[in-house]
Amino acid sequence: MAVVLSLLLHGLLLSSMGEEEGLHQTQFLDTMFVRGLKRKCFDGEEDIEGTLAGIKAIPSYNLQRQSLLDMSLVKLQLCHMLVEPNLCRSVLIANTVRQIQEEMTQDGTWQMINTQSTGQASLDRLVSTDILCRSSRDQAEGKQGTAYGTLSKDFESDQAQDSSETISTASAVQAPRNLQSNVWEMESPQENKGNFQKSLDQIFETLENKSPNTVEDLFSEVDNSYYDLDTMLTGMMSNTKMGHCDSLETFSSPTNTASNSNCKSDLNDLDHIVEILVES
Amino acid sequence: VAGCGPDNQVFISSLKSAFFLFLPPADIISTVEFNHTGELLATGDKGGRVVIFQREPESKNEPYNQGEYNVYSTFQSHEPEFDYLKSLEIEEKINKIKWLPQQNAAHSLLSTNDKTIKLWKITERDKRPEGYNLKDEEGKLKDLSTVTSLQVPVLKPMDLMVEVTPRRIFANGHTYHVNSISVNSDCETYMSADDLRINLWHLAITDRSFNIVDIKPANMEDLTEVITASEFHPHHCNLFVYSSSKGSLRLCDMRASALCDKHSKLYEEPEDPSNRSFFSEIISSVSDVKFSHSGRYMLTRDYLTVKVWDLNMETKPVETYQVHDYLRSKLCSLYENDCIFDKFECAWNGSDSVIMTGAYNNFFRMFDRNTKRDVTLEASRESSKPRAILKPRRVCVGGKRRKDDISVDSLDFTKKILHTAWHPTENIIAIAATNNLYIFQDKVNSEMH
Predict the structure, then answer these.
(1) Within 10 A of B374 (CB to CB), how many other CB atoms are there?
(2) Which of A76, B206, B293, B390 has the most CB atoms at less than 10 Å from its CB?
(3) What is the number of other CB atoms lying within 10 angstroms of the CB of residue A80?
(4) Nearest C-alpha in A relative to B229
């Protein structure tokens, strides 16, 4: 469990290398991954040397792989929070995570990260880099100029889920084995939450020199409102019976090409949503 | 027939827009299906409604004005439900509609959401009896003292009324989400497939079904593959195929054993090592499989391609067509925004010479198997005035850019065409673009093929 936590810490710290770098991260990820070649870290650096001066250095393969791993774990976490996850999607994401882990084990990077004493790393830094990471990812999506966003996957579920308790302590930290069992065992969601909580407890226990109380305080500083807003919106979307794309247009696209009547209904729905937000 | 004659190129590039219907924003179309004659077209939406369109008979006065599709009937097929045991809401979204072959004056179709399949009977009433002796016009009992003579009630014509009634409800057959239903050629049985299991039902029996495929592992932690689509062979009632999230197809023979976990044939293309990436498996996941009308071939859709498989060759597809290969360099972004998990459907034309599938930006693609030509068309209000001929579109990938080309970065990934259907015999296609339905017809007179 501690291995996974330190793995993510490593990733998050690397991701905080620069907001600007984060912006281009996804685009560079695309460039790197399209080659489909498995390279070690030094090859990535060769690429950096090969590029012309003035062009931004391409993040190393390891960094990108790490970023993909983080992204996948977050996706699976969101799966877990939603009531009835799409099983096919969950399986495919979990397989991706497994592939990355296997490769990292072969590379030896898995071990390398394990031996880094992340226990000493300041947990305050964990909080700040997490937020940076998230915002830079969101900004990257905005830069792509399309009308989708991270909201889109939340709209898969019609069920407003009271998952704030699990979300606030999750922060994409979980052991792979427990992860899978949590994802698949839809038949007993209550049991899931128990397992999930248990593995988190184990993680907390292995952190050195930190009392459980401190850790819990730490995670309480994480921006929960982000998740709560999403789950609230999800619940509202199902209540107002808005179409998938319409809701995206309302929230993420400033240039709405809908007709006047659509605009009016969108505005009404927007008022409705603002009402609910204000009430809560 | 489309694709075979000298006009095949004409067909591919000159579809005209005959009809489009705009539904209220709440109703995203989730499935489209022509019946066996093409006279009826059914659509299901996210709100659990089914809308059936009927083709008007062609007018003799205007032979070039082909029959248009108008709304025939609308009904609420499924309602949202709550599974109290698991504390889960069951969506009312219609995942699939399949028509039964018509056996009498009534039409029948199967519609399914994630859990429950329903059989609906659609009947017409255009006459009603009048002249009862004991009841008056409104149905109230007459005062017997006013009845002085007897009359025979007669059937008088009335305005056409379409009645839809649920005849069977096939419930509690699935733990996981139903992704496909397929009616057997024997017209007595049908199958329903969810992520891990396939059940065989008799159309007349609702309290029992046979499990014919079960890929659930003993330990759910070992789950790495799910069923994504399945279909019965159009002629051989013992054969069916199912596709998986790992990109394989399995042809099963129900005569071989009661439980068809062991396939008769496994169709799998070996991975191209030079193209390998972390997304290889995801993009190889088959989102739809369709037998050709002839029964000789299968058509599959994965994220970037459509493939034609010969039933006699298991090692690789006989044809592969690139739908939007320019997305290959964007897979990470598409993974991040979940677009990589979009499930596109595919369709054959009546003669199996042209195949069609949807893409992003409200584009859809057609591939002529004989000439190897392909075309990209757009389903949008702006570019589809009624009777106007559709203009082919092009996505440019850098390099030379022609006027009206769209660059990859300006594609709208929220506008995806997942559901398409082709008329069983004619050059008429139905395209579902979010909450809009487009019906396109060949500009060539329908009599000319």
Answers:
(1) 16
(2) A76
(3) 23
(4) A88
Q: Which tokens go with B75? A: 């009904």
Nearest CB to B333 within list A26, A243, A244: A26
State how far the Cα of B42 lies from the Cα of B20, in Å rounded to an integer: 14
Q: What is the CA radius of gyration of chain A?
A: 20
* CA separation for the pair A13, A186 (Å, rounded): 33
Residues in chain B closer than 8 A to A139 (CB atoms): none
Which residues of A are less than 8 Å from B28 in CB distance? 243-245
- What residues pair up with B113 in beta bridges, in sequence order? none
Please tell me the distance from the alpha carbon of residue A93 to that of residue A171, in angstroms, as a whole number.
17
Look at residue A220 in the predicted model and tell me its pLDDT.
43
- Please report the ipTM that was assigned to this predicted complex: 0.89
**Taking residues B358-368, what's their average pLDDT?**
96
CB–CB of B434 and A248 under 8 A? no
Q: If pLDDT is split at 50, 70 and 90, which confidence band does A97 have?
A: very high
Give the tokens for residue B410. Answer: 């300006």
Per-residue pLDDT tens digits for B138-177: 878 888 888 888 999 999 999 989 999 999 999 999 999 9
Q: How far is B242 from chain A (nearest CA, A)?
A: 14
Write phi, then psi, for B47 (nearest 5 degrees): -90, 10
- Cβ atoms of B427 and B349 within 8 Å: the answer is yes
Closest in B277, B285, B414 to A92, CB measured: B285
Task: For residue range A173-198, list pLDDT tens digits in order.
Answer: 334 444 444 444 444 444 444 444 33
Cα angle value A74/A75/A81 (rounded, 5°) = 90
Q: What is the CA radius of gyration of chain B?
A: 24
Q: What residues of chain A lie within 8 A of the CB of B275, using their CB?
A: 36
Q: At what angle do helices A61-81 and A87-107 cross, to 10 degrees?
A: 150
pTM for the full model?
0.69
Q: Hey, is A102 helix, strand or coil?
A: helix
